Amino acid sequence: MTDWLPPEAAIALSLSLRVSLVAVLVSLPLGVLVAYALARWRFPGHGLLNGLVHLPLILPPVVTGYLLLLTFGRQGWVGAALWDWFGFTFAFRWTGAALAAGVMAFPLLVRAIRLAIEAVDPKLEEAAATLGASRVVVFATVTLPLILPGVIAGAVLAFAKAMGEFGATITFVANIPGETQTLPTAIYSFLQVPGGDGAALQLVLISVAVAMLALAVSEWLSRRVARRIAGR
Amino acid sequence: MTLEIRLAHAFPDFGLDVDLTLPGGLTCLFGRSGSGKTSIVNAVAGLLRPDQARIMLDGAALHDLPPHKREVGYVFQDARLFPHLTVAENLTYGPRVRRHPPVGLDRIIALLDIGGLLDRRPGTLSGGERQRVAIGRALLSRPRLLLMDEPLAALDEARKAEILPYIEALRDETGLPILYVSHSVPEVARLATTIVLVEAGRIAAVGPAAQILSDPGTAALLGLRDAGAVLTARIDAHEADGLTRLQTAAGPLWLPHVAGPVGRPLRVRIAAQDVILSRHRPKGLSALNILPARIAALHEGQGPGVLVRLDLGGEFLLARVTRRSAQMLELQPGLSVHAVLKSVSVAQSDVGGRPAPDSA
């Protein structure tokens, strides 16, 4: 399917898809938990957690990338421990690109899910409890089905954001073809070499298409949330 | 069945302090909005965690249990059906999460007449239909106690009239104890076997419905405009001129046509302001319903009115007269009088379906 693309571009595209998919799938359960905690629980540190989640949205991506490098790099306090105990590292690997993409997309993911949770009337959850459902069962049978379209919408948005992640990725794991060179960093590289404009333009079009598709799907799903909660 | 409720809770604006022991049947918690009625049922359901609570249902301590283990059904004012589930799935939600078969499903569907709604979504139901499904859903969770928090308040008169008979059927046919919150006197008069008057977080009075409704002291708490007593009656005959003769312990009553077969038991509510007192049996009066009575008690309020409790052979009525009339007629306990009921006073909407078991 990618015969019409230069090999480097095709590799970058498939790597980007893998990085983004892994980033979203791994961060999804954590995103639901954090969104639920922010929407429904009041606890000390609520504001701090909210700020922390949204930080990547406000910080310059280079700063986020550098902080990731300081934390998860081979010399970082978490990164060094992971290397010593498990022989695993994020540094200059595609998993690092996935981590960077996941962190950058996390605010969008949490925001969409939180909005869906806040639209669910807690009185429905109370009613479920009086009918014999424990908290976990209430979440599984009432809350989750009602927010599911919102969760999917958040995941789609996060996927699109991950596909476009540039600053944090290039700072954290550099721009290594076949390992950490994603779609945006590949576009950047093509633009640096004479005659690379054509390949860059193709990748730009692919990026635009992915972004538009993701937005459309997420819009459609949001409308389904509203309909589902209205019970029609 | 005994339900013991002892609660103490400090809200920011008022305190709740309740100590109640209730028999079975349908107990109405009556009081103004904001008096704490809903807080009491929420505490019984476990949705409110009061500062101090002791709630015992037939010797089992409910206050130690989380809401989902209390086996207390709850019908909310806003039905709270699950919007993503069909009516049938809403009904069987309790049995599914408790992993027991939906015992009595067909009987409850028939009782509430919701068989035609099973495949619908809650968003497409009318208010009355929603409330009936909510009642069915609560019943199917096999509760040991049913809580109903103003289940009719959000409905118009026609829808109320549609649901009241189902609640009466629950009270009379299932034997399930019901705690029912209301601030509507006609609703309380029609449904309650026991009445609890709640005022500013405290219990102002508790007792059997007939007693509370006909006691001038407590009737004043129900609101003077709404004060009135309940008579139990039985359809005696449908007469040729369109009137129905009812038989009561106090004597016969005639009402414009009341639907139902001869022999059917009824509750009739008579508002205190619709009762006129006369020392002698009046003649040449258009009122049809004149009953001999004996004054049991007089209750002077703060206004110009006096509430008179009348004993009509074991049944009690309330009459509201002015203080001046009371003096003129020299009303005092023990005096024999005639109670003239303005025929319009026995309103159709206040005519109940069945008498409560222990008010007969």
Low-confidence stretches of chain A: none
Summed up, the domain count of chain B is 2
Q: Give Rg of chain A in angstroms.
A: 20 Å
Based on secondary structure, the structural category of chain A is: mainly alpha
Sheet with the most strands of chain A?
none
Name the pair of protein chains with the most residues at their interface, and give those residue counts. Answer: A-B, 22 and 30 residues
The CATH superfamily of chain A is known as MetI-like
Number of domains of chain A: 1
Question: How many alpha or pi helices of chain A?
Answer: 10
Total count of strands of chain A: 0
Q: Name the CATH class of the largest domain in chain B.
A: Alpha Beta
The whole-angstrom Rg of chain B is 22 Å
Give a summary of the structure in a few sentences.
The complex is a heterodimer of chains A (232) and B (360). Chain A has helices spanning 7-40, 46-58, 61-72, 77-86, 94-118, 122-130, 135-163, 167-173, 183-192, 197-230.
Q: Descriptors for this entry?
A:
heterodimer, A: 232 residues, mainly alpha, MetI-like fold, 10 helices, 0% strand, globular, B: 360 residues, alpha+beta, Rossmann fold, OB fold (Dihydrolipoamide Acetyltransferase, E2P), 2 domains, 6-stranded mixed sheet, 5-stranded antiparallel sheet, 20 strands, disordered C terminus
List the helices and strands and how they pair.
The complex is a heterodimer of chains A (232) and B (360).
Chain A (H helix, E strand, L loop, with lengths): L6 H34 L5 H13 L2 H12 L4 H10 L7 H25 L3 H9 L4 H29 L3 H7 L9 H10 L4 H34 L2
Helix pairs in contact in A: 1-5, 1-7, 2-5, 3-8, 5-7, 5-8, 6-7, 7-10, 9-10
Chain B lengths: L2 E8 L4 E8 L3 E5 L6 H9 L6 E6 L2 E2 L10 E4 L11 H5 L1 H6 L6 H8 L14 H14 L4 E5 L7 H18 L3 E5 L2 H7 L2 E6 L2 E7 H6 L1 H6 L6 E11 L4 E6 L2 E6 L8 E7 L3 E4 L10 E12 L4 E8 L2 E8 H6 L7 E6 L9 E2 L8
Parallel strand pairs in B: 3-8, 3-9, 6-7, 7-8
Antiparallel strand pairs in B: 1-2, 1-4, 4-5, 9-10, 11-12, 11-14, 12-13, 14-20, 15-19, 16-17, 16-19, 17-18
Helix pairs in contact in B: 4-5, 5-6
